[in-house]
Amino acid sequence: MRLSVLRHLAKTECFRRSNIIKSQCILSNSICFYSTQNAEPTMHTVKSKLIQLMGIDRAYKPLQTVRSHLLSQLPASQDELPERSMQDSFTSAIIPLSEDFSLQDKYVTFLGSVRMGRLLEDMDMFAVWVAHKHLHDPRSKPGDVTPYVIVTVLVDQIDFTDHVPKSDRDIRLSGHVSWVGRSSLEAVVWLEQDAGGGNYQRLTRALFLMAARNSTNSGPAVVNRLAPKDEHEREILAGGEDRKRRRTRQKGVSLLKSVPDAEEQGLVHSLFLRSVDLHSHRFARVLPPGGRWMGEAKQNTIVFSHPEDRNLHNNVFGGFLMRHALELAWTSAYLYGKYRPKICHISDINFVQPVNVGSLLQMHSQVVFTQHNYMQIVVHAEVFDATSGHPTTTNVFHYTYTVPEVVASIYPRSYGEAMKYLEGRRHFLHVMGLEGSK
What's the rounded Cα separation, in Å, for the pair 120 and 117? Predict the structure, then answer.
């Protein structure tokens, strides 16, 4: 996100708070400093409001609450709904780590920092709340159950700053809807931690693409159009359009649909030549000094999901999947890089299909690309059918990690691994802003 957009996001937050109390905003490196006397809702409160809004039971029940009677309340077209601004959906919430010691135990790492996987869980739920804040039908009354279901389609990109969060300081989530289609919404969510003296330090920012579904989650539902109010909001909205076009282009050039381009084909052949015995006519593969085979750089785990891991629709919560995938990827990066790795980027988390509570979930993590002291890691989540023995892919996660020293170069041995290498390279070049220098 460009600096002007980040500045706008910081100013937007202060603008909202000025409607409640007198505040002062000093912009420095896209961080908003302000003074406030009003307590913000906690993430626990946000979850309670979502449960109330959906009209579902708080306690787990194998059979979900029937919501088919709400279908008639959905609008048939966007023309029936008023336009909404980015300010309408802006909201924030607190993770009160400074005062809740049981919460600290849940979030703290063994080194005293904060588990990023836990924060991803909160960001996913918060993005759903932001999307609901955007939705508005004048025919509905306060306290009515919403006829909408909001599901996470993908996380476009998550970027991390160098700030290491502390487990005893409050963390604030803020966000708003940044782009809208006919039945889809993009929400930008960012995290900041209390740095003392009324100052907040930014931790990360993420873009969530959400789908609006009807009350039975059996089809799409139209949402309010988004109307930018000034040049900054038009720039944010244009960024959402750019990301939509990029996703469309990516599908067209997917390595599952088209052959690698000429440069990529040359790269694969170069990797082959560097890892083959040139004195043998049998094309015998030989691992170069300082290299590792891709097939030996993977880790696996099995996760059993329980009702406590469910979302508002009785499926496994997307944030729960994100947390486990992140922690497995971290383990892979640690074992491969020999140092405790630092997460730099998470790109294109795809939610292919929902995961039922009680599913046997297999996760496979693999280092697929390396450059200098960076590692690109992909995690595939699969639901395993114990009866048939067949796995079904439900999620794909892409991570970029770094360590203090240069890591071993990764070498594919098969054509399939070469495609993983190229896909990992594409993700790495994108998140590092190097696509133009391929």
Answer: 5
Average pLDDT over residues 321-332: 91
Beta bridge partners of 397: 379
CB 420 within 8 A of CB 356: no
Cβ-Cβ contacts under 8 Å for 416 (sequence gap 6 or more): none
Per-residue DSSP letter, 211: E
Average pLDDT, the chain: 83
The answer to whether residues 369 and 309 belong to one domain is yes
Which of 227, 250, 273 delimits the end of a domain? 250
Find the DSSP H helices in 135-230.
none
Look at residue 29 in the predicted model and tell me its pLDDT: 30
Q: Would you say residue 311 lies in a domain?
A: yes
Tokens for 62? Answer: 């194998």
Q: Which two tokens stand for residue 166?
A: 């502390």
**Angstrom distance (rounded) from CA 101 to CA 434:** 43
pTM of the prediction? 0.80
Tokens representing 97? 């780590």
The domain in which residue 309 lies consists of: 261-437
CATH number at residue 69: 3.10.129.10
DSSP assignment, residue 90? -
Tokens of 299: 């880790």
Assess whether 209 and 266 both reside in one domain.
no
